[in-house]
Design brief:
Structural class of chain A: mainly alpha
CATH superfamily of the domain at 4-93 and 161-238 in chain D: P-loop containing nucleotide triphosphate hydrolases
Number of strands of chain A: 2
Strand order of the largest sheet of chain A: 1-2
Strand content of chain A: under 5%
Strand order of the largest sheet of chain D: 6-7-8-3-9-10
CATH class of chain A: Mainly Alpha
Strand content of chain D: 25-35%
Largest sheet of chain A: 2 strands, antiparallel
Number of domains of chain A: 1
CATH topology of chain A: ABC transporter involved in vitamin B12 uptake, BtuC
CATH architecture of the domain at 4-93 and 161-238 in chain D: 3-Layer(aba) Sandwich
Structural class of chain D: alpha/beta
Oligomer: heterotetramer
Helix content of chain A: over 70%
Radius of gyration of chain A: 19 Å
Largest interface: A-C, 46 and 46 residues
CATH class of the domain at 4-93 and 161-238 in chain D: Alpha Beta
Largest sheet of chain D: 6 strands, mixed
Order of helices and strands of chain A: HHHHEEHHHHHHH
Shape of chain D: globular
C-alpha cells in the first residue's frame, strides 16, 4: 500500500515537476504568475490527440509537433497580451488577472471545439504493469518518469551552460544589467516563454497517455505547478523539480489514511504554510526587499 | 539644552552592507538638526529605523528619557515622531484635503461604529478637521488645490502638501527627508521660514538635505554620516571646515598624501 | 415573466457579492480570490441549520453571516503578511480548501450529492414562495448592503481603507494600524458574502459544492473589476450585466453545450481586454498598482 | 568631430525636472569627469544617454546625443553596445547569482566567436588579477570592491570606444578607490575614452583631462584638469559658501 502510494507520488511528481519547471523558467524572466501556463498544457494534450487520433499521424511525429506548437502558443500569449501590459508597466495583479482571462478563454474554446466529454490518447488494451518493489508500474508510467527526468536535466544543462540559457539567467538576475551587456530582454522573455511552454505541452501529452483528456485538466495542473514552484523556491530550476516531487509525494502519502478527494486541500494547505512560514521556498532566491 | 530623542549605538545592516554602524546622537529639543553625508552614508536608513520601518540590529531609542519598546511605525507616529519621505508618499488617488484629514486625530469619528450609527458626531468632527486642513494648506497657498487629486500636483506642490500633512499629524518631532529636493527657490524660502516658525512653536526638526546652502543656513546642529558611521557633529561653521567631512564629500586630497 | 424575475433575483445576489468583494479588493486594495468560500460557508451554515435543526432561515442568515465573518477573520491573516500575487494565491488556496471540505466532508455536507429540500424564507408567518416576494426580500438586502458598505467607505474609516490601498507605508506613518483595518475589512466583506450565500440557499432550495468553486470567485472578481474597483455603483452594474449578458445567449436559441462555454469565453476575453484597455473598469477610477 | 556630443539635454522624472539644457562632449582619447554633490543630476545625464532612464521612469524632453556624428538619442540600452559604448552602472549591477566567469561571458554576449571571447576573458583576468582566484565564485558573494572590478571588466570586454562609468568609487574602501582610478587611467592610456560621473571630486578631477561641475540639474562651470583641481568653487558646491 505505502509502496504503491510512493510510486503514485513519484509519477504525479514527475508531471508537477515538468509544469513547475516551465512556470519557473517563465517566472524568472517576467516575475509574475503566468497562470495561463496551465491551458498551454491542455492544448498540448489536445493537439497530440488531434494529430494522432483525428488526423492519424505517427504518434512520435505528432507529439513532437504538438510540443512545438505549445511553445509557439506560449510565445503568442506573451506577444499578444503580456507585451502590451509590459509596455504600460502594469502591476503584477493586472498580469495575473489577464492571465486568468486567457486561461478561461482558451479552456472554454477547447470545450466548444472538442466537447466536454472525456477523450483518450490510449490505444489498444491496457497492459498490465511490472511488479517493482511491491508496486505495479506500467510502461507508460516509466515513460513519464524517464521523460520528466530527461527534460529536467536537459533544461538544467541548457540554462547552466548554453549562451542563450545563460542569458535567461542574466535577465532573471537583473534585466537592466542584461541590456547593458547587449542582451535584448524582450527576446530572452520570448525564449523563456517558448521553452517553458514546450515543457508544459510535453507534460500535457505525457499525462494524457496515462489518464484521459478533459478541457478542464489544466486547472488543477497549473495550481499544482505553482505550488510546486513556490515550495521549491520560485524561479529555481532544481527547486521546481524538487517541489514537484515533494508535492506529488505529500499528496499521495497524505491520503494514506483519508480519502483521495482531500488531495487538493492537502496541496493548498502546504502552499499556505509555505507562504506564511517560508515564502522563499526551500531553494528560494530571496525576493528583493521592499525598499522604502 | 535638553535632549528630546536619544539614539544610542544604533546598527543596521542589510544586503551585506553595514548601513548604520553604532550611531549615537542626542537630538536637542526645540532645534533644527540636519543629517548630511555623501550617497549611501546611511541617512535614510537612520530615518527608517527611527520611524519603525526598519528594525535595528542593535541599539535603542529613547524619547523624553524613556526607552521606546514598541517600535512599530504607527505607534511611533502616535508617540510623536512624524516624517516625510524622500520620494514623497502622498496618497496619489485621493484628494489633497483627504491626505491631510488622514493625518488628523479623530477620536470620535474613525471607528466603524461612528461610521454606521453616529454620522452626526462624525460629521461635527470632520467639519472641524476640514477647516483645520484648509488652514494648513493656506500656509503654503495651496488651499485652492484642496479638492484636487494628489497625483495631479506638480512635484513641488506634492512636497509642500506632504509637509502640510505632517503638520496635520501634529507630532513633536518632525523628520524631513530631503524636503527641498525639486522645489523652486521661492518655495525653498517659504519652507525655510515655516521650519523656523515651527521651532518657535516648540517643535523639534531633524532633516536630511542635499541642498547644502539650506543646511548651513538654518541648522543649529549638523550630524555627518559616512559609510554608516557618525564622522562629525557640531554647528555649521565647524562642520564646513572639518577635514574629515571635506574628505568624505570630495575624496582624499591628492597633494596632501603625496 | 418568472424567468425575468428569477434572473433579477440571481443578479441581486451577485450585486451583494460584488459589493462585499469590492470593499476588500476595490476599496482596500487587497487582492482576494476566495470570495466564493465566504459565499459557500454562508449557504451551507444556513442550509444545515434549517435542515438539521429546523432553524428559521432568518436565524440561518445571521449565523451564516457570522460563520463567514469568522472565516474572513482567519483568511485575513495571510493578508497581514503577503502582498500582491502571493496574497491572491493564498486566498485562492483558502477558497479551494473550503470547497474541498464541502465536497469531501460527506457526513455533514453530503458531498457532491448536495443538500436538497432547503426550506424557504417566511415573513411574519407568510412564506415568501413567489419569485416576486423573494425579489423584494433580496432587494431589501441589496439595500442594506449598499447602506452599510456605503456608510463605511464614505466615512473616515473608509478613508483609511483607501489610504491603505494607495500606500500602506504612508498609512502607517499617519499613525494608523494597518493590520486592524485589514482584518475588519475581511470580516465585514465575508459576512455580507455569507448573507448572499444564505439568500441563495433558501431561494434555490438545493446547494452543492459546484456553486462555490474557484471559477465562481473569479466571476465575482470579474464583476468587481468590470464595474470598477472602488465604485459601489460599478459593482451593481457589473454584476447585473455579467449575469444578464450570458442569458441573452440562451435567447438566441443556443443549446447549453454551446452557450455555457461561450459565456465563459466572453468572461475570459472581457477580462483580458479590460486589463489591457481599461483596468479601472466601467465606473471606477482606481487602477491596481 | 568629438566622439560624444550631448546638446541641450533635458530630462524629467514625472513632474520633477532632473536636468535642464545640459551640454557637454567627450573627445577621442579623453577622460572627462562630471562631478558634483548628490542629487544634482549627474547620473541622470549618464542614464539618459545610455537609455537606462526609460526603465527608471525618466523621459528625455529635449536635446540630442551624437556618437561619432550619428544621432543616438533614445537608443535602447542593448543597442548601444553595438555602437561601441559600454556602461559601468551605478551600484555595479553585476549578475549576483552567476559566477565571475559567467559575468564576463555575459559581458561578451555580442561577440560571436568563442575563441575571441575566451581570449578577452583572459585579458580581463590579467587586468584584474584579484578576480583570478575567484572565477567560479558567485559574483553576489564578492566584496563591493571586487564587484566593482568585475563590473569594470564586464564592460571592457568588448573593447568599447567609450566607457561610461557611473560612481565607480561609491561605497568602496579607500584602497579599492585608488585601485579603480588607477585602472581607469590605465584603460584610457590604451585608447578607450572615458566619461566618468563621480561624487569623489578630488580623485576624479585628478584623473581626468577635463571636467564639468554640476549643481542643481545644470552645469555650473567646466574646465581643464589643472584649473579645476585648484578651483575653490568645487568645494563650495559641495559644502556651501
Amino acid at each position: 500500500m505505502v509502496q504503491q502510494l510512493v510510486a503514485n507520488g513519484i509519477i504525479a511528481g514527475s508531471i508537477y515537476a515538468l509544469i513547475a519547471l516551465g512556470f519557473a523558467l517563465i517566472y524568472r524572466t517576467v516575475k509574475f504568475f503566468h497562470f495561463a501556463h496551465g491551458v498551454v498544457y491542455t492544448v498540448g494534450a489536445y493537439l497530440a490527440y488531434t494529430f494522432t487520433i483525428t488526423v492519424g499521424i505517427d504518434p512520435l511525429v505528432s507529439f513532437f509537433l504538438a510540443v512545438i506548437l505549445a511553445g509557439v502558443m506560449g510565445l503568442g500569449i506573451d506577444r499578444l497580451v503580456y507585451y502590451p501590459l509590459r509596455r504600460q508597466k502594469a502591476s503584477d495583479l493586472i498580469f495575473l488577472l489577464a492571465s486568468f482571462g486567457i486561461f478561461i478563454f482558451i479552456q472554454n474554446l477547447i470545450q466548444l471545439l472538442y466537447g466536454a466529454q472525456i477523450l483518450t490518447l490510449r490505444r489498444g488494451p491496457i497492459v498490465e504493469g511490472h511488479h517493482v518493489l511491491g508496486t505495479i508500474i506500467t510502461n507508460t508510467q516509466i515513460l513519464i518518469l524517464v521523460t520528466s527526468i530527461l527534460l529536467s536535466v536537459a533544461l538544467w544543462l541548457y540554462v547552466k551552460h548554453s549562451k542563450l540559457g545563460k542569458s535567461i539567467r542574466a535577465v532573471s538576475d537583473d534585466p537592466v544589467a542584461a541590456s547593458i551587456v547587449g542582451i535584448n530582454p524582450e527576446r530572452v522573455i520570448g525564449l523563456s516563454f517558448f521553452i517553458g511552454s514546450m515543457l508544459a505541452g510535453a507534460a500535457g501529452i505525457l499525462i494524457s497517455l496515462e489518464t484521459n483528456l478533459e478541457p478542464t485538466m489544466g486547472f488543477t495542473a497549473i495550481l499544482k505547478g505553482i505550488i510546486a514552484a513556490i515550495i521549491g523556491g520560485i524561479g529555481s530550476i532544481p527547486g521546481a523539480v524538487f517541489g514537484g516531487y515533494f508535492l506529488g509525494m505529500a499528496e499521495n502519502l497524505g491520503i494514506w489514511k483519508i480519502q483521495a478527494g482531500w488531495k487538493d486541500a492537502i496541496a493548498f494547505g502546504i502552499l499556505i504554510l509555505f507562504l506564511l512560514v517560508r515564502p522563499g521556498g526551500i531553494m528560494g532566491i530571496p525576493t528583493e526587499r521592499e525598499r522604502l | 539644552m535638553s535632549t528630546i530623542l536619544q539614539i544610542s549605538n544604533l546598527s543596521k545592516s542589510f544586503d551585506g552592507i553595514q548601513a548604520l554602524n553604532r550611531v549615537s546622537l542626542d537630538l536637542p529639543r526645540g532645534k533644527i538638526s540636519a543629517v548630511i553625508g555623501p550617497n549611501g552614508a546611511g541617512k535614510t536608513t537612520l530615518f527608517n529605523v527611527l520611524t519603525g520601518f526598519l528594525t535595528p540590529d542593535e541599539g535603542e531609542v529613547s524619547l523624553g528619557g524613556k526607552i521606546i519598546e514598541d517600535m512599530r511605525p504607527h505607534k511611533l507616529a502616535l508617540l510623536g515622531i512624524g516624517r516625510t519621505f524622500q520620494n514623497v508618499r502622498l496618497f496619489a488617488q485621493m484628494t489633497v484635503l483627504d491626505n491631510l484629514l488622514l493625518a488628523m486625530k479623530n477620536p470620535k469619528g474613525v471607528s466603524l461604529w461612528a461610521a454606521l450609527a453616529r454620522p452626526q458626531i462624525m460629521q461635527a468632527e470632520e467639519h472641524a478637521n476640514r477647516a483645520r486642513g484648509l488652514e494648513l494648506l493656506e500656509l503654503f497657498r495651496l488651499a485652492d488645490k484642496a479638492g484636487e487629486l494628489a497625483e495631479n500636483l506638480s512635484s513641488g506642490q506634492s512636497k509642500l502638501v506632504e509637509f502640510a500633512r505632517l503638520l496635520a499629524l501634529n507630532t513633536d518631532i518632525l523628520l524631513l527627508d530631503e524636503p527641498m529636493a525639486g522645489l523652486y527657490p521661492e518655495m525653498i524660502e517659504t519652507l525655510k521660514k515655516t521650519m523656523q516658525a515651527l521651532i518657535t512653536q516648540g517643535k523639534t526638526i531633524l532633516f536630511v538635505e542635499h541642498n547644502i546652502n539650506v543646511v548651513m543656513d538654518i541648522s543649529d546642529h549638523i550630524v555627518v554620516l559616512n559609510h554608516g558611521q557618525k564622522i562629525a557633529e557640531g554647528p555649521p561653521q565647524e562642520i564646513r571646515k572639518d577635514e574629515k567631512v571635506i574628505e568624505a564629500y570630495l575624496g582624499k586630497r591628492q597633494d596632501a598624501s603625496a | 415573466m418568472d424567468y425575468v424575475l428569477h434572473i433579477m433575483v440571481i443578479a441581486s445576489i451577485y450585486v451583494i457579492l460584488a459589493m462585499s468583494l469590492n470593499l476588500i479588493v476595490g476599496f482596500t486594495g487587497l487582492p482576494a480570490l476566495g470570495h466564493a468560500a465566504f459565499y459557500g460557508i454562508g449557504a451551507y451554515t444556513s442550509a444545515l441549520l434549517a435542515l438539521n435543526f429546523g432553524a428559521s432561515p432568518w436565524i440561518g442568515l445571521i449565523a451564516g453571516a457570522i460563520t463567514a465573518g469568522l472565516l474572513g477573520f482567519v483568511i485575513s491573516f495571510p493578508a497581514l503578511r503577503l502582498k500582491g500575487d502571493y496574497l491572491a494565491l493564498a486566498t485562492l488556496g483558502a477558497g479551494v480548501i473550503v470547497y474541498s471540505i464541502a465536497k469531501n466532508w460527506v457526513a455533514v455536507t453530503r458531498g457532491p450529492m448536495g443538500l436538497p429540500g432547503i426550506p424557504g424564507f417566511t415573513f411574519l408567518g407568510y412564506p415568501l414562495d413567489g419569485v416576486w416576494a423573494y425579489l423584494i426580500l433580496v432587494l431589501a438586502f441589496v439595500g442594506l448592503t449598499t447602506f452599510v458598505i456605503g456608510r463605511i467607505v464614505n466615512s473616515p474609516f473608509g478613508r483609511i481603507l483607501k489610504a491603505i490601498r494607495e500606500d500602506e507605508i504612508g498609512t502607517q506613518a499617519m499613525g494608523r494600524d494597518v493590520n486592524y483595518y485589514k482584518v475588519m475589512v475581511f470580516m465585514i466583506g465575508a459576512a455580507f458574502a455569507g448573507v448572499a450565500g444564505s439568500l441563495y440557499a433558501h431561494y434555490i432550495t438545493f446547494i452543492d459544492p459546484s456553486s462555490f468553486t474557484l471559477m465562481e470567485s473569479i466571476t465575482i472578481l470579474l464583476m468587481v473589476v468590470f464595474g470598477g474597483l472602488g465604485s459601489l455603483r460599478g459593482s451593481m452594474v457589473g454584476a447585473v450585466i455579467l449575469v444578464v449578458l450570458p442569458e441573452l445567449l440562451r435567447f438566441l436559441g443556443m443549446p447549453s453545450s454551446i452557450a455555457a462555454p461561450l459565456r465563459q469565453m466572453i468572461y475570459g476575453l472581457l477580462l483580458v481586454l479590460l486589463m489591457i484597455k481599461r483596468p479601472q473598469g466601467l465606473m471606477g477610477h482606481y487602477r491596481f498598482k | 568631430m568629438p566622439l560624444l556630443e550631448v546638446d541641450n539635454l533635458s530630462v524629467r522624472y514625472g513632474s520633477i525636472k532632473a536636468i535642464t539644457d545640459v551640454s557637454f562632449h567627450v573627445e577621442q582619447g579623453e577622460i572627462v569627469a562630471i562631478v558634483g554633490p548628490n542629487g544634482v543630476g549627474k547620473s541622470t545625464a549618464l542614464n539618459a544617454l545610455s537609455g537606462i532612464i526609460e526603465s527608471n521612469g525618466g523621459l528625455i524632453t529635449s536635446g540630442e546625443v551624437r556618437f561619432e556624428g550619428h544621432n543616438i538619442t533614445g537608443f535602447k540600452t542593448h543597442e548601444l553596445v553595438q555602437q561601441g559604448i559600454s556602461l559601468v552602472p551605478e551600484g555595479r549591477r553585476i549578475f549576483p547569482r552567476m559566477t565571475v566567469i559567467e559575468n564576463l561571458e555575459m559581458g561578451a554576449f555580442t561577440i560571436k566567436d568563442k575563441s575571441i571571447v575566451n581570449n578577452e576573458i583572459q585579458r580581463m583576468l590579467d587586468l584584474f588579477p584579484l578576480l583570478k582566484d575567484r572565477t567560479l565564485q558567485q559574483a553576489g558573494t564578492l566584496s563591493t570592491g571586487e564587484q566593482q572590478m568585475l563590473a569594470l571588466g564586464r564592460s571592457l570586454i568588448i573593447q568599447p570606444k567609450l566607457l561610461l562609468a557611473d560612481e565607480p568609487s561609491l561605497g568602496l574602501s579607500p584602497n579599492f578607490v585608488d585601485m579603480i582610478f588607477e585602472k581607469l587611467v590605465e584603460i584610457n592610456s590604451e585608447g578607450t575614452s572615458i566619461l566618468l560621473v563621480e561624487q569623489n571630486a578630488r580623485m576624479a578631477l585628478e584623473a581626468c583631462h577635463r571636467g564639468y561641475v554640476f549643481e542643481m540639474g545644470k552645469i555650473s562651470f567646466d574646465g581643464k584638469k589643472d584649473s579645476l583641481v585648484n578651483d575653490e568653487r568645487v568645494q563650495k558646491s559641495y559644502l556651501g559658501k
